[in-house]
Design a protein that fits this description.
By secondary structure, the protein is an all-alpha fold. It folds into 2 domains: 393 residues, Growth Hormone, Chain: A, CATH 1.20.1250.20; 56 residues. Helix content is 77%, strand content 0%. Helix 2 runs antiparallel to helix 9 and helix 2 runs antiparallel to helix 17. The radius of gyration is 21 Å and the shape is globular. 57% of the residues are buried.
């Protein structure tokens, strides 16, 4: 239940702050592990073996299970309660994180990362749904802005933490220390008062979840391995065709099953489908940008920065996100999301194209820092309004599945763009490949800005019309 005393003010009450803190901690570890891996990839590859394909799989094995199972987890969270599902996700994520930190081969690393993604699928949708189900009114905009700043900040600060651990301790500790925030969150859940909201009579669509997971996995396998085998090889076209058929069957099944994990009726709501289309473009660009910067800046034939310096490159983005996101979330709650969702991706696109200035001799201050500042401003303006617009268009009784769909789409976007990395950079992440990635990144951001400007409607304007 939302606090009625807080419904008419932007300030959060102590119980609401506890809800936001739990939601932040629960999603922090999943967001952190998605970004911390990028900067550690060269060292992981050197220690465990494998080239660009292995590096792609270390990222995408996590994203495959996270993306595919998030939809199923959203339905389970609605049926059995957000707090209960959050506990399961936290325990599973902790166990999988230990396995990642102890990996002794690329195969063990990839399998453990897949298990980590599966557990993470139970955390992201349930954490945000916990906020939307227990906080309402203007305070919800501030709560979502705070949650967004922290979780997105985790994705940005991840490279810095990964760099510090990789250079001075071990990349393995980045995953092993997950047990600390996980244990803290489990302890705070005990202090959370109120009933665990759940929907009665919900039947879980296990077949749909399996079809989505297997279909995504097969398609990603084909996209990652295609440069090594070619499209004519049965190793590529057979799993790709099977994956497409399974995903098509999954969509068909969602129109037939009583309790779909992807309710297609959600996409009849304008701000929901437009916001998720914008999410697809924007988060594909963010994933591509994070991967490429983290790896290229450590290229021995390029900038040759240490892992720590490569992680520090994105620090301005983190600072701006922490300073501005909560305030922007409150402003978007007052004036509507359309302006922020249009201007934010536009700035992000400009920031991405500024990376075309990177050349030899390399200078972070003149070639990279301006891009990081503009990207930080764009993210701060865009992320909280985007989340609020999508979830605000759907009733609180379906907040779990709505959150799961949006999170799944953002992860699928990253999954696909990383799978296509070799095609985007021309097979090698040198200076030319880095510039190609910057152009693709900027184009994706601009597409998100156009979609938002043309499609998003402010709630008051929509109600008036």
């Amino acid at each position: 239940m939302a606090d009625s005393s807080a419904s008419d003010t932007h300030a959060l009450t102590p119980p609401q702050r506890l809800v936001v803190t739990i939601a932040i901690l629960a999603s922090f570890v999943t967001s952190l592990d998605m970004s911390v891996t990028n900067v550690a990839l060269p060292r992981i590859s050197a220690e465990l073996g494998g080239g660009l394909s292995t590096q792609q799989w270390v990222v995408d094995s996590y994203l495959v299970t996270l993306s595919a199972l998030m939809l199923l987890a959203g339905s389970i969270a609605d049926a059995y309660g957000r707090v209960f599902i959050m506990r399961i996700g936290l325990i599973g994520f902790g166990i999988a994180s230990i396995a990642v930190g102890l990996a002794v081969s690329p195969e063990m690393m990839i399998i453990a990362r897949a298990l980590q993604g599966a557990a993470g699928a139970f955390l992201l949708p349930s954490s945000l749904a916990l906020i939307t189900s227990r906080i309402s009114g203007p305070a919800q905009g501030r709560a979502i802005g705070t949650w967004t700043a922290a979780t997105t900040g985790a994705m940005i600060i991840g490279p810095l933490l990964g760099g510090l651990f990789t250079d001075y301790l071990s990349w393995r500790l980045v995953f092993l220390i997950n047990v600390i925030p996980i244990g803290l969150t489990l302890w705070m859940l005990v202090k959370l008062r109120g009933t665990d909201d759940r929907k009665r009579g919900v039947r879980i669509d296990w077949w749909g979840g399996a079809a989505a997971a297997i279909g995504l996995g097969l398609a990603v396998w084909a996209l990652i391995e295609e440069p090594a085998h070619g499209w004519a090889s049965p190793t590529i076209w057979a799993p790709l065709a099977a994956g497409v058929v399974l995903l098509g069957g999954f969509l068909w099944w969602q129109t037939r099953v009583a309790s779909p994990i992807l309710p297609l009726s959600l996409f009849t709501v304008r701000n929901f489908w437009v916001g998720n289309l914008a999410t697809l473009f924007i988060y594909a660009a963010l994933s591509l940008n994070g991967f490429v910067i983290g790896v290229y800046l450590q290229n021995p034939n390029g900038p040759a920065l240490t892992a720590t310096l490569a992680g520090l490159a994105s620090l301005p983005i983190t600072i701006l996100m922490v300073l501005l996101s909560s305030k922007v979330g409150a402003l978007a709650g007052r004036y509507g999301p359309r302006f922020f969702m249009s201007v934010g991706p536009l700035l992000l696109g400009i920031g991405a194209l500024l990376l075309l200035r990177v050349d030899a001799p390399f200078s972070y201050w003149w070639q990279v820092l301006p891009s990081m500042i503009v990207i930080g401003l764009g993210l701060s303006i865009m992320v909280a309004p985007l989340t609020a617009a999508i979830l605000g268009s759907i009733g609180p009784e379906r907040s779990g599945i709505a959150s799961a769909v949006n999170n799944a789409i953002s992860r699928v976007a990253g999954l696909i763009v990383i799978a296509l990395l070799a095609t985007i950079v021309g097979g090698q992440l040198d200076l030319s490949g880095f510039h190609s990635a910057a152009i693709v990144t900027g184009s994706l951001f601009f597409a998100g800005a156009i979609v938002s400007f043309l499609g998003i409607r402010n709630p008051r304007a929509a109600a008036t019309s």
